[in-house]
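Wax synthase domain-containing protein: structure, please.
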Amino acid sequence: MKKENPSIIKSPTTPQINKKLINQKNDHNSILIRSGILTPSVYVSIKEWIITFLFNTKHLFSEPFISSSPRDFWSTRWQLLINESFKELGYLPVKNLFVSIFSRKIANIMGVLSAFGISASLHEYLIIANAYTWTGEHFFFFMTRGVIFILWEVVFISNKSKNENTMIEKFLKWVLFLIINLILLPALIEPSMRNFDFSDISSISKNFVDYSI
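Here you go.
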């Protein structure tokens, strides 16, 4: 029997090399993958979602004070993080429901009112849950906003292209929209002002603690 020379260094076989590379790769995997909590594909999906959420998400507000129309204000400048939710939960379902029965304009109107209705209900719920009272002012505020949105589209947009607005017209619309905002603003802020003592932040947190207990 031929004896092996101990001074000769054997080259690793291909399976051994592959196994070593796999072990090295596993060492760099997340602990969530190594522990079996997440599969590599799920881990990658969550990682990509977090990166997208942190770096590609729209800003919450986009200079709402320069809005010259309700559409500009609500669609492109105000609460951009959640306005898609109102569209998906309110506008689109109701619009699709009514479009098979009524004209497209009526369906759009009902969809807009539905989206504002969901927003109104959410704000009313926050007041009821934290202050144990219902005033209806937030419902009035948002539903009135919905009606103004529709009337604005009928008066200013229906028979005129958006690109035909001159600077003077845009300025006048901005002034008109600002006046409307100032008139309706008390209905939005007064329920909170009456029920929370903003000079003492503990009074606000106390409502949340009491409600959760």
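Notes: DSSP finds nine helices and no strands in the chain.
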